[in-house]
Amino acid sequence: MTRTELSEILERHRKWLAGEAGGQRADLCGADLSGADLSDADLREADLRGADLREADLRGADLCGADLSG
User: Lower Cβ count inside 10 Å, N or C end of the chain?
Assistant: First the structure.
């Protein structure tokens, strides 16, 4: 997944959390996020099932309610 694609997903997720038009819950099921910079990302309620998070920077990320199974 490119940085641009991830940024777009996170922006739609931000809108979804805020109840804004054009929002969509982040579906990162099975995504290759290895080495991704997710520092300070708001990933509340995001679907991260089976995502590869090896060496991803999650410092300060909010993962409350996120599905991290698998």
Answer: C
